Fold:
Amino acid sequence: MSAVNGTQAKNRGVVVAVRGSVIDARFDDRLPPIYALLHAGDKEQIVMEVLAQPDARHVRGIALTTTHGLARGTVVLDTGGPLKAPVGKTILSRMFDVFGNVIDRGAALSDVQWRSVHRPPPPLAQRSTKSEVFETGIKVIDVLMPLERGGKGGLFGGAGVGKTVLLTEMIHNMVAHQDGVSIFCGIGERCREGEELYRGMKESGVLPRMVMLFGQMNEPPGARFRVGLAALTMAEYFRDDEHRSVLLLVDNIFRFIQAGMEVSGLMGQMPSRLGYQPTMGTELSSLEERIANTATGAITSIQAVYVPADDFTDPAAVHTFSHLSASIVLSRKRAGEGLYPAIDPLESNSRMATPDILGERHYRLAQEIRKTLAQYGALKDIISMLGLEQLSPEDRAVVGRARRLERFLTQPFFTTERFTGLKGKMVSVADALDGCERILADEFKDRPESALYMIGAVSEVKGRPPDANPVARTEPTPHAATAAPARGAPTHSPPSTTAAPRSEVPHGTSPHEP
Ligand SMILES: Nc1ncnc2c1ncn2[C@@H]1O[C@H](COP(=O)(O)OP(=O)(O)OP(=O)(O)O)[C@@H](O)[C@H]1O
Ligand SMILES: [Mg+2]
Structure:
């Protein structure tokens, strides 16, 4: 898209150095300002953004496209403005790249306004805060780490623990039920996922209220670095001009930091801790601080955050944590146990989890669940060394409750129906709380743990016969020494019981005998 066509007296410069994505250019007349967009190439297909002015004649910029064909002496044209994103009602249901070009093979855009992607966050005096919970229909989140309407929630996790699946499920559950606009921004992730999401949204009929932007992993660092700002510009339009509430979904904010790191390295800046850019904090806050609520509208944001090498002390993860009102931590261990969504309830937290916001009962139950799970965590070592039998009856009761809670807090997803074969479930907070309360009151202590696995509301347990699990049926006579050989089960019970914490469908682990 060329904004320079037609403008007379273009400010011209020449390329003096090309280093990967970083380009130095000399301008003899007028030096383009920071953030000015420059074009080069015979079709003006190479686009770069000025990031520094090393001296009175030179600018250093980062390319937002590939730099193939660029050489010293190539002419560059100053477009006279910064990178812009299209805004307007007609951008709904469309898919864009970082330049605001439509990439869904649909008709050209009409009736849009172009706005700079570089905008300041709203001043403090215009911000508004109200504490309201944003229901997701996912039990473990709504009960233990509720999201804030108009807040920022992060989904943290290493590679392949289910961030994208969880984010897509949230889109599925929330986009259909909220009246505002949703903006999905794909930063540095797989192109395939973008395409799948687009198709999914189209099929479920929510596309007319959605905008998608992609700067995926095949694109140069400059594009990945700026696509988030373009998405925010659109979100701000809907908030400030149309006074609508906006749901902004980002997969993956780490890739934004990483793109900044690549840019910074190419620009010749000194790396900071672990090779990250020295400006990571400011770059991230220039994006995150724009996600804010004003008196006219709110932007609720949910961001996936890749955690390199599962190391939660990584500077990128630490910086991101500090911006969020709810942090949902996904654990590889849980994913390995098949406890999806693999959320670690003890590592995750939310600023909403206070009695004033949730109400006394919800808060008390959440605390009790956390306490039970923490006690179980502490007992795990003893169980693996000595076996469940060595625990006191009270401790065994805690283990039984915790394991049933863990299973009840799993949930079949709509987005995974295709490969799990389980019908997706959305559960109201009331149902989820009710289930947890009844489990804590030991109402299901005689049911096999598996009866609670991958169900929706607790009422679904009733549908299953109490003796559906043959192993559970034999539980009442476990220490009848003669029974074991007859079943062909292991005669030495400790290994099977101690191995229980790792197994998905437990066997003989319920606190069955004194
Ligand atoms: N709720 C779930 N139910 C069943 N399987 C799941 C669930 N969540 C994740 N998985 C499994 O884990 C795989 C990886 O999930 P996903 O692509 O969401 O990971 P990710 O954290 O986004 O990974 P990456 O960092 O590579 O983007 C899925 O393909 C699926 O097999
Ligand atoms: Mg992913």
Residues 1-7, 468-514 have pLDDT under 50 and may be disordered. The first helix runs from residue 139 to 144.
